[in-house]
Description:
Oligomer: single chain
Number of helices: 3
Shape: elongated
Largest sheet: 7 strands, antiparallel
Helix content: 10-25%
Distance between the termini: 62 Å
Structural class: alpha+beta
Amino acid sequence: MSSPQHHQTPAEVRERPVCMCVHGGRCSSYAPGHALHLIQARLARATPSEWTDALVEASDPRTGVIVLRRFDDGDAVTVWSGAGAAAAATPGLPVAWHERYDVLDADGRRWNVASARGNAAQRR
Length: 124
């Protein structure tokens, strides 16, 4: 006599993982706007002439959206960070933004940000 077969349904598999920062936890993704990857940080550090000084015009810690006003040409740049940069980058704070590698430096701390034009390093 054979034992009964218990069929277990497979666990749901998602094509894209959900980052924990969406649920208030620590970023578990290196996608644009999430955790800063070591290589991304090193590339930004290795190209110091590509940093742009800016002033935080507006920030919303709830949504992660930060509006920067560039010093060189006065243009506004909107970036997003799910890693908490909007809480640290308060309006009026001078910051540095690395446009090529989408790194934001506010008060000596660096974040990976996603800009409206997309992450340049990820497109390469």
